[in-house]
Amino acid sequence: MSTGIAILGVGRWGVHFVRHFSQHPSAQVVAIVDSSPEKLHLCRDQFNLDTNKVILANDWESIRLHPEISAVVVVTPAISHYPLIKDALNLGYHVLAEKPLTLDPQECAELTALAAQKQRILLVDHTYLFHPAVITGQKVLQSGGIGKPLYGYATRTHLGPVRQDVSALWDLAIHDISIFNHWLNSTPVLIQARGTFWLQPNLADLVWLTLIYGDGFQATIHLCWLNPDKQRRLGIVGSEGTLIFNELDSRSPLTRQKGHFDRQEAYFIPRGQETESIPIADGEPLKALCEHFLESVATGVDSPVSSGSVGTELVKILQAAELSLARGGEIVRLE
């Protein structure tokens, strides 16, 4: 039995959901909603949609009670997520929401509780958690492949797109935070963020974010959308090597760098340095996420990977980072 889906928002990211769900044998795209008629028409033409079967609507109100809808994909600006998701859940629909779930952790917690009450799936689109390199990297860490994790680092820079609703912190950091939390199977207890503003007042273009975990592990994340040196690189340094996820390295995105010191009197001599490419499975992360959502809907089992609870925890971290940013880099403890 196919899942009837309404997709809200077909901008730069939303069209990819149309692509995957319109091609999936277990899904039926019932409606596509966007305030822009031009985007709707482009989407219709790009995916050769039959408008006798797929409703193209300019607002949620006009299709929210359609009898064939059983799940809703929310790919609208984050500020609009809370009322849309709440309404969809109250109508008995399963929901897949673009990250962040909302901009307020209390709203996130409320939506998560509502989904549980209604016995509906609430999945958040933390796409990187479905990347083959991230999945394999977690297994490497769990098997002790780099020894005891000591510290982490990540860089996420590019030249645009520059957001006008949220800072580089909210736009970019959630990806690397989610990977660190997933790989470490933990969440930070202390947060520190420092930012610089060039293009727009009150929206940081450059952010240095530090996550401090309960066991003392620290990760530093460099975020900037005003840097032509595009990087998507994350690493965890362990006592026996370093695990690196470099998204822009298409040939070898996951590597392990080995090496150790030999002590000779007062000197430390590097030995055994080599780089090992770690094989990963093929597959598009967003496609895997869409399949995971459909499977969760079919089985009624909440996602262990990217549930509303996971989304709520990440928004708590971002809120704490925003507070630290506003206080000039003061360390903030997560409650």
CATH topology of the largest domain, which one?
A: Dihydrodipicolinate Reductase, domain 2
Indicate the mean pLDDT. 96
Q: Which structural class best describes the helix and strand composition?
A: alpha/beta
The number of helical runs is 8
Distance between the termini: 43 Å
Domain GFO/IDH/MocA-like oxidoreductase: 138-243
InterPro entries: Gfo/Idh/MocA-like_OxRdtase_N, Gfo/Idh/MocA_Oxidoreductases, GFO_IDH_MocA-like_dom, NAD(P)-bd_dom_sf
Organism: Microcystis aeruginosa PCC 7806SL
Pfam families: GFO_IDH_MocA, GFO_IDH_MocA_C3
Question: What would you note in describing this structure?
Answer:
Pfam families: GFO_IDH_MocA, GFO_IDH_MocA_C3. InterPro entries: Gfo/Idh/MocA-like_OxRdtase_N (IPR000683), Gfo/Idh/MocA_Oxidoreductases (IPR051450), GFO_IDH_MocA-like_dom (IPR055170), NAD(P)-bd_dom_sf (IPR036291). This is Gfo/Idh/MocA-like oxidoreductase N-terminal domain-containing protein. This protein is α/β, with parallel strands linked by helices and 335 residues long. The protein folds into two domains: 1-125 and 284-305, NAD(P)-binding Rossmann-like Domain (Rossmann fold, 3-Layer(aba) Sandwich), CATH 3.40.50.720; 130-282 and 314-331, Dihydrodipicolinate Reductase, domain 2. Helix content is 32%, strand content 32%. Strands 14-13-12-11-7-10-9-8-15 form a nine-stranded mixed sheet. The longest helix has 19 residues, at 308-326. The mean pLDDT is 96.
